[in-house]
């Protein structure tokens, strides 16, 4: 099958540091290539792929000092992809609603994986206007804010990662908690810090700070000045697997409608249990009591961490292999492609 993967341009595919959507696009693209599909990846020029790469810009946008207009470059990317639509059996878009208008003018089947949160009024208005667009959600919970709309949902496809490339750590070498992601209000780094201090356990925090969150980071900065707290900033994959694998657990104390939460399955692949709040997709991804614990109050989260050693780390790894591997994800996307082509 000839497949076009259209990635966001904010990070390379795969990203060297932070970047969830582009990382998933990379895993999917490389697995499709491995299975013999002819894949063209539309992404930034600093991407690395076994597919044919078409780059509307030489460098990913977030770390490009030139600060190019992201909408303009995505328009160029989408124009090129859809002008060449007849070359493909399927167009798979990962740029949320930006591609919807282009789809009205081509006959080639297309599908749009929505990677972001959907609990905003403007999102609902756009999706209602393009209700015929074929959509894939990354969790069933992601769809909940749009339950009142009659949309063209084709499937839910959970993210999957290349488990065999991730080192399993059956016996953590560190006596610490891990926090991984962004320093933003909805991720609740303040709550993670409060939990660590309540337990008297070190907390290692690997997180990026977006310009939009700079003011909030100034609120958090004084909390980082504590002997139990170590702020690492953004880290790459090698350091990430070490951070997660050697941790007692991953703290995921979010306070928002998380569409999926890639960090959770990354930790589980290392064998590390997840302690999280029951927001967004968390109850869909984490089996409470089997691969981690779900609680809401600080007291209950602290209690869950105190008994975290009852979680079988080998079971955490098997759980990802069974439900959240790149093979499982690609099987489901292939089924979507076949459905669309038929």
Outline:
The chain is an alpha/beta fold and 342 residues long.
Q: Largest beta sheet: what is the strand line-up? A: 3-2-1-4-5-6-7
Helical stretch tally: 13
Straight-line distance between termini: 13 Å
Shape: globular
Question: Helicity, in percent?
Answer: 25-40%
Number of beta strands? 13
Task: Characterize the main sheet.
Answer: 7 strands, parallel
Order of helices and strands: EHEEHEHEHEHEEHEHEHEHEHEHHH
Class from secondary-structure proportions? alpha/beta
Note the beta-strand portion.
15-25%
Radius of gyration: 20 Å
Uncertain residue ranges: none
| Mean pLDDT over the full residue set | 95
Topology of helices and strands:
Layout (H helix, E strand, L loop, with lengths): L1 E5 L13 H15 L3 E5 L9 E3 L15 H14 L6 E4 L6 H4 L6 E5 L6 H9 L5 E3 L2 H4 L9 E4 L20 E6 L6 H11 L3 E6 L5 H11 L4 E5 L3 H9 L3 E4 L9 H8 L4 E3 L5 H4 L6 E3 L3 H9 L6 H11 L2 H16 L1
Parallel strand pairs: 1-2, 1-4, 2-3, 4-5, 5-6, 6-7, 8-9, 8-11, 9-10, 11-12, 12-13
Helix pairs in contact: 1-13, 6-11
Would you kindly provide a written description of the structure presented here, covering whatever features stand out?
By secondary structure, the protein is an alpha/beta fold. It is 37% helix and 16% strand. The protein contains 13 helices and 13 strands. The protein has helices at residues 20-34, 70-83, 100-103, 121-129, 140-143, 189-199, 214-224, 237-245, 262-269, 282-285, 298-306, 313-323, 326-341, and strands at 2-6, 38-42, 52-54, 90-93, 110-114, 135-137, 153-156, 177-182, 203-208, 229-233, 249-252, 274-276, 292-294. It has a seven-stranded parallel β-sheet, with helices on both faces. A six-stranded parallel β-sheet has the order 10-9-8-11-12-13, with helices on both faces. α5 (140-143) links the parallel β6 and β7. α1 (20-34) packs across α13 and α6 crosses α11 (298-306). It is globular. The model has no long low-confidence stretch (mean pLDDT 95).
């Amino acid at each position: 099958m000839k497949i076009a993967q259209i990635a966001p341009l904010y990070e390379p595919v795969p990203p060297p540091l932070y970047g969830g959507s582009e990382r998933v696009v990379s895993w999917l693209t490389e697995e499709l290539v491995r299975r013999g599909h002819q894949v063209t990846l539309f992404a930034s020029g600093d991407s690395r792929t076994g597919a044919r790469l078409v780059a509307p810009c030489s460098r990913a946008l977030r770390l490009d000092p030139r600060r190019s207009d992201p909408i303009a470059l995505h328009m160029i990317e989408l124009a090129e992809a859809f002008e060449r639509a007849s070359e493909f059996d399927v167009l798979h878009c990962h740029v949320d609603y930006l591609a919807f208008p282009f789809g009205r003018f081509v006959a080639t089947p297309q599908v749009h994986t929505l990677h972001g949160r959907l609990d905003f009024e403007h999102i609902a208005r756009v999706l209602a206007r393009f209700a015929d667009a074929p959509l894939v959600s990354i969790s069933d919970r992601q769809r909940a804010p749009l339950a009142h709309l009659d949309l063209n949902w084709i499937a839910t496809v959970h993210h999957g990662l290349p488990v065999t490339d991730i080192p399993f750590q059956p016996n953590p070498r560190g006596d610490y908690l891990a926090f991984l992601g962004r320093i933003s209000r909805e991720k609740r780094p303040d709550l993670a810090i409060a939990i660590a201090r309540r337990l008297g356990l070190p907390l290692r925090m690997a997180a990026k700070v977006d310009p939009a969150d700079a003011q909030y980071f100034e609120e958090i900065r004084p909390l980082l000045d504590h002997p139990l707290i170590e702020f690492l900033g953004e880290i790459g994959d090698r350091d990430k697997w070490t951070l997660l694998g050697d941790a007692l657990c991953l703290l995921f104390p979010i306070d928002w409608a998380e569409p999926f939460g890639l960090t959770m399955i990354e930790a589980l692949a290392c064998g590390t249990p997840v302690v999280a709040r029951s927001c967004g997709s968390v109850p869909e991804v984490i089996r409470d009591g089997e691969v981690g614990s779900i609680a809401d109050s600080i007291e209950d989260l602290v209690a869950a961490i105190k008994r975290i050693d009852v979680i079988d780390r080998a079971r955490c790894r098997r759980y990802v292999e069974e439900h959240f591997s790149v093979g499982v994800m690609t099987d489901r996307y292939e089924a979507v492609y076949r459905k669309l082509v038929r």
